[in-house]
Write a structure and sequence with these properties.
By secondary structure, the chain is an alpha+beta fold. The protein folds into three domains: 49 residues, Uridine Diphospho-n-acetylenolpyruvylglucosamine Reductase, domain 2 (2-Layer Sandwich); 117 residues, Uridine Diphospho-n-acetylenolpyruvylglucosamine Reductase, domain 3 (2-Layer Sandwich), CATH 3.30.465.10; 112 residues, CO dehydrogenase flavoprotein, C-terminal domain (Enolase-like, domain 1). Helices cover 31% and strands 20% of the residues.
Length: 340
């Protein structure tokens, strides 16, 4: 049986109190939202905080609301299940609702939060193991060791970003609201990620993700999320694909976007998606040719590593398949796409 290490639990009842606690405790403290990822990682001794600051009693972090300009404001403590079932999210951000609905299983979606999913630690099959397992292997670059077991002789951690909701939020142009001892700041989610598997996000010690702001989408907005995994639930993605299509008169695409995850330390956008999709008309040979081309482009630009479970070559060959299927699902107003 894996046991939790000893720690002190603090439960602030306001955002200000939480920020003060984190400032006072410094690097010895960690934030807990739903705890669905933090607690297993603590049992594996990947994290051993002296103080855990639970955000479960902070009311400012809850709820899904809409600003007068149509911006959807999702509190960081909104449950994953709440995101998946929200009519507001489904209408304005269908790819996000679909991605949330594919996170883990029903019990974990009821406990886990959107903030926790966005801030999910990068994962690697040589890192997310028990202390005993990791010690037998000599540890790794990400924790306690100096050797990368994924890339022979590698000097940079290649643990993978594995949050289902992050690529969907990137296609939606989401903005993150963050509060810390130095005050309030906002950052576009595209600018939030770093290419370092050890620390892949721009979040300082003591800062708290407060909310996610999703700009209004046009009436013709369509989105979808595709998730490759070996089982129909629970698993983290072996590959995640989020896409966006904004469709205007005559079913012509006015804007497109495509972001993949579970490959490297940050989600990867396919930059040619917008130019290749714009002006094509849904259901035509031109549109089908565009999505086939994007599948081939993604296959060339994205390279799988042995950083997550699953056959590496199979995962890479599934990239164009999932790009095509996810774009087709968005065009048809369907989704999500997942392997069972």
């Amino acid at each position: 049986m894996l046991r939790l290490p000893r720690f002190e639990l603090r439960q602030p009842t306001s955002l200000g109190e939480a920020v003060t606690l984190l400032r006072e405790e410094g690097a010895g403290a960690m934030v807990m939202a739903g705890g669905t990822d933090l607690l297993p990682n603590m049992k594996h001794e990947l994290f051993t905080p002296r103080v855990v600051v639970s955000l479960g009693r902070v009311p400012e972090l809850r709820g899904i609301t809409r600003d007068p300009d149509g911006t959807l404001v999702v509190g960081a403590m909104a449950r994953i299940a709440e995101i998946a079932s929200s009519e507001s999210v489904r209408k304005q951000a269908p790819a996000l609702a679909q991605a949330a609905g594919l996170v883990a299983g029903p019990q974990l979606r009821r406990a886990g939060t959107i903030g926790g999913n966005v801030l999910l630690d990068t994962r690697c099959q040589y890192y997310n193991q028990s202390y005993f397992w990791r010690s037998a292997l000599g540890f790794c670059l990400k924790k306690d060791g100096v050797v990368c077991h994924v890339v022979a002789g590698g000097s940079r951690c290649v643990a993978a970003a594995s949050a289902d909701c992050a690529p969907a939020l990137m296609t939606l142009g989401a903005v993150l609201e963050i509060v810390g001892a130095n005050g309030h700041r906002t950052v576009a989610i595209d600018e939030f990620w770093l290419g370092d598997g050890i620390v892949n996000r721009r979040l300082a010690v003591g800062e708290i993700l407060v909310a996610i702001r999703i700009p209004p989408t046009p009436p013709g907005h369509r989105g979808a999320y595709g998730k490759l995994r070996e089982r129909g639930s629970i698993d983290f993605p072996l590959l995640g694909v989020a896409c966006r299509l904004d469709v205007g008169d005559g079913d012509r695409v006015e804007h497109g976007d495509l972001v993949l995850t579970a490959l490297a330390a940050r989600p990867k956008r396919i930059p040619q998606a917008a130019s290749r999709l714009v002006s094509t008309r849904l259901g035509t040979e031109e549109f089908r040719a565009a999505i086939d081309e994007l599948g081939a482009l993604a296959h060339r630009q994205c390279h799988t590593l042995a950083n997550v479970p699953g056959d590496q070559e199979w995962r890479r060959e599934m990239i164009p398949v999932y790009v095509r299927r996810t774009l087709q699902a968005a065009a048809a107003g369907n989704g999500p796409v997942h392997h069972v």
